[in-house]
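Form 7-S
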Amino acid sequence: MKTFISSLLVLALLGVPQLFAGQKSAPEQSPKLFKDGDRVCFIGDSITHGAFYIENLLLFYATRYPDARMQIYNAGMSGEGVGGVLKRLEWDVFNNKPDVSVIMIGMNDVPRGAYAEKWRNHESFPGRVKGFHERYSRDMDKVVKALTERTKKVVVFTPSIFDQTVQSKRENLLGCNDALGWAAEVDKAVAKKYGAEVVDIWSYMTEMNGRYQQSDPTRSFIDFDRVHPRDLGGFVMMAKVAIDMDESPFVSQIQIDAGSKSSAGTINAKVSDVKAAANGLSFTALENALPFPMTAEKIEADKVLNFTDTYNRQILKVSGLKTGDYDLKIDGRKVGRYSSAQLEKGVNLASNKDTPQYRQAEEVAKLCRKFKGQTQTCRAIVGAEIWLKISHLKTVEERCRSLEQQLKEGKIKPGGDTAWAKAYPINKPREAELLEGVQQTIRQAYDAAKPVEHKFELVPAA
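Output:
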């Protein structure tokens, strides 16, 4: 952000007329996490497997940078730690030929059970913690080293949190989040050693979750199990990625002087056909991005995060209007009423759900949710092969027979494992088709985010 705005100021001081003349737009924005066309592989445990934060990242990047597309590959596996990642790097990560590898791990490396009240003071506790420290440091070093040797860019996300501050009936494994904080420091050190970038998820979520609970200690960014950040937690994680990767805070900024009809100061948009009259102002704008759409839950969380005001800025600034209130119409439809003072200061339209841009973004969000479901289905195939002990069998038919026998004999525990076992014979034969379906949905999300020109009108309120 600092670099982007500084560039604009330098150009202004140098008097570059082509940038700041009326009807011209600022240069288009480009993402920092990846480059257009990059294959991005997300590596981790169930938090990555479930793809809630990946869904939020796809929604952010598709709406903010619709012309810079990434392909996403999910290499998260429920129940695994960094040692498991090390074992499957070759066939589950590098086979995707990633340009960018993003890794977040640690939740299953921490000996969570050791932090239960009955074990915290047990004589075995120091040894279990020591073993965790040794294994995590050793294996994280090996994983990041391998990733940096085989990938153009590596980004290390420090672990998401274990919520040990929420008031809940769920047993509190006190000290578990502190252990994850230790893992976060290891992550930072290893990333520095191998030249990888870091997004400090753990510190941000710990701080923001604490603020979120100040008014209601029973609520959390994390699910009831104290472990999994679902959609809300994924939103928080996405916000931290935007901050640490220094992504652009602007959806767009449309800045117009009604007197001169100049659109100097416009960012990430093209303004044309500016017409000013006694009864108001009209113009056409093509913005290069869409606002990030927010659920009611995210809007409430944003009172703590302040994401909309800092990283979801779709600003309309109009000076030179006669004093009074104005109805804003976009494509002939009224979307709000603002005073001339508000418009001169700048109105953030990103939170206005009545704009066509917001409604378009909501359609993108639907496709991102579809992506999440599809990638979960694909990862369940891999999960069945790893956890139900069938990967050693050579043919799909043998694996299916093994699962059928295990189900018949009651050897598979009820719940997720049973669902994986039952779905495997249906989904494994069409795995390639399902994986292509994931990529197709990503492409559809970017297509749905394609910028559309809109006509804006500011009309004196009756």
